[in-house]
Specification:
296 residues, alpha/beta, Rossmann fold, two-stranded antiparallel ribbon, 11 helices, 10 strands, globular, binds thiamine diphosphate
């Protein structure tokens, strides 16, 4: 049965098991991200009923019924506002939002801008497969220039958006990058992102064997390196931006940037100052019939 288990014991990978079979292509990076997500939640002892997982529309969004827990599967490009709203209503709940590069850097890019600048206390995981996967390989703004795609047989005429430079221009408080073939490092990244108290931007370079023939699993395997192995200081903004942006020779992965002393959006809300309760705990039934009488 696909019911959320409410056991009081520590969660295991099995607690997240859904009987809905996966439909991703063989070799899709979504399998790795799916596994790392469950591992991160289990290692943080977060049970399926203790978190909210919000999915955009796309191949990655089809993960929403491939695991148990409270899940929301929304409109294309619109996952961030929903996740932020849910989190502000119930700030005690870890809220994670997942979106593709088509949704997040093309169609819904405005929401990403305001998610980062607002420092909403949520995790945003970018399934960065460099194309619109579900609708069969159209170019997104993160597709490499000159590469033939289904809607651009001669390659896209526009230049590729430098997503990391863009993200850093928005003054983020947490930026990480992972690779869908590295479950161990992705698990570490997701755990740190969940523990971050502001907006955690997690870019996962995801292999898409069907439509992405420029940043393949093998290419990413050969080019990615762990910043933690090179003693990177994630509080060094200048260095973080530089290693995030320059991927010409090799690709930095790990926690690239993190500062904790910037208040989140919720912490900045004046009416919430000093409140011990959350908005969902304050919801009450109000009799409005007295107000309605004014209109009759
Ligand atoms: C508002 C809206 N625009 C377009 C679509 C059609 N659509 C559905 S999935 C998709 C592609 C998703 O690509 P991406 O966000 O990169 O995620 P991926 O499938 O690669 O994981 C598109 C264009 C839609 N469902 N809703």
């Amino acid at each position: 049965m696909n019911q959320i288990p409410l056991d009081s014991g520590a969660p295991t990978m099995k607690s997240y098991h859904s009987e809905v079979p996966c439909t991703w292509c063989d070799g899709c990076g979504d399998y790795g991200i799916w596994t790392a997500l469950k591992r991160a939640l289990v290692e943080l002892k977060i049970a399926p009923h203790e978190t909210l997982l919000c999915y955009d529309v796309g191949c990655h969004g089809n993960m929403s019924d491939k695991l148990l827990g409270y899940r929301f599967h929304g409109l294309h490009g619109r996952v961030i506002p929903f996740a932020a709203g849910a989190k502000l209503a119930n700030p005690k709940l870890p809220v994670l939002a997942f979106g593709g590069d088509g949704a997040s850097f093309s169609e819904g890019i405005g929401h990403l801008v305001h998610g980062i600048r607002s420092n909403y206390p949520i995790v945003f995981v970018l399934h960065n497969n460099g194309n619109y996967g579900l609708t069969t390989g159209q170019a997104s703004s993160l597709t490499a220039q000159g590469v033939p795609m289904n809607t651009a047989p001669n390659g896209i005429p526009e230049h590729t958006l430098n997503s990391m430079d863009f993200v850093f221009s928005l003054e983020p408080t947490f930026v990480a990058r992972g690779f869908s073939g590295d479950i161990k490092q992705m698990t570490m990244i997701l755990k740190k992102a969940i523990e971050h108290h502001g907006f955690a931007f997690v870019d996962i370079l995801q292999s898409c064997p069907t439509y992405n023939h420029f940043a393949t699993h093998d290419y990413l395997l050969e080019h990615c390196y762990h910043v933690e192995d090179e003693g990177h200081d994630p509080t060094d903004l200048k260095k973080a931006r530089q290693i995030a942006v320059d991927t010409s020779k090799r690709i930095s992965t790990g926690i690239l940037y993190k500062i904790e002393d910037i208040p989140s959006f919720y912490e900045r809300l004046v009416p919430r100052q000093g409140k011990k309760t959350t908005p969902v705990e304050e919801v009450e039934i109000v009799d409005v019939s007295g107000y309605l009488k004014r209109f009759v």
